[in-house]
Amino acid sequence: MRVFVSRILALAAVGLMTAPAAAQDAQAFEPDCTRIAAFLDTAVAQGRTVGASTLVWKDGVERCFEAAGEASREEGRAFARDTLVQIFSMTKPVTGVALMQLWEQGKFGLDDPLAWHLPQFADVNVLAGEDADGTPILRDPARPITIRDVLRHTAGFTYGAGGNPQNAADRLWEELQPLSGDKTLAEFADAMAKVPLLHDPGTHWHYSAGVDVQARLVEVLSGQDFADYVQDRIFVPLKMADSGWRRDEADVPRLARIYLADEAGALQPMPRDVWLEANFMGKPMTMGGSGIVTTVDDYMRFARMLLNEGELDGARILQPGTIRVMSTDMLDPRIALEDRAWLPGKGSGGFGVDFFVRTAPPQTPEENRGSVGEFFWDGYPSMLFWVDPQQDMAVVFATQKVPFDGTLHHDIRDAVYGADYTGE
Known about the structure:
CATH architecture of the largest domain: 3-Layer(aba) Sandwich
CATH superfamily of the largest domain: DD-peptidase/beta-lactamase superfamily
Helix content: 25-40%
């Protein structure tokens, strides 16, 4: 009964924030494949990336596929249509879709306390400061974490600090290593629940391991291993045969190498052992927030399903209303811009379920081009995809450059839309 009631309340709450509808008179626009190809060629020639490709689907047909450069410079292997790429955080929307399938089945409510389903989070604390010796000062949260918080990065969770801890919560993360590849998702959740929250739930947008909590929820609510669930319920129905976490040496001849920009900006190949380690080959961890290896064609099938409101080629993955919930800005307006970390740098908008959601047209020439109502996410090796319902379009941009290079995203959007596209 409590799940049913919570689900009704969640639907009512979402109904207060209507997703931007596609404009009746959308700005006239056609993607320019020549301009896209020129951008990719120039980016490679200028050493901004070693190789990249872009796939554009619009008005029910493929409009452009362009590629430039190399997937492996050392082998002289071109960045091709069937190149396998590591998408890192572009895994997150896949996890969100998996969990929202279970929401449609009535397995949970968006405003259920997380601890109803993962009891280890019942006693989580908030970091209130630390003593002179670094001992954390903890307090109870102002309210429980809800699943909605977990979906929109407002739970207060951390993601660690990449080996450079800034506070007592990050130091405990470094000690416990919740996302270590030798852990299962169950072990991850147990460790994660011991790390203090950085903020009270619902008060800040803070990018975190919350999507890995989503993956554990999928396991608990479905009774199935997370990777197996995604394979059975998303990849197989969508015919995404080249997508998954579990990879082996047979994939290496098609796998793009990741290139690391050094202090001078020169791109050096990531050492092969690190390169393969990023796939967690042979390890139990299946992250909800990272780890999928795929191709541009496979990921475009996922993007087309989203664009088509949950269905592709007769396979119904989600209901249209659920896609609208996911692509609606669910951030409380009381969360100030300064409490949204770097999210405002993505554009004029907010956050739904594992997606940035554009709620206003670009405000300046420097802001990334895009349409009101679009939703998207990206990945650490400068990967990007977006869904633009106003233009009936989806785009996948693939490259393998770290650290994350947002200038490539700005420029590929200029190449797709044109620098003068208003997005209204």
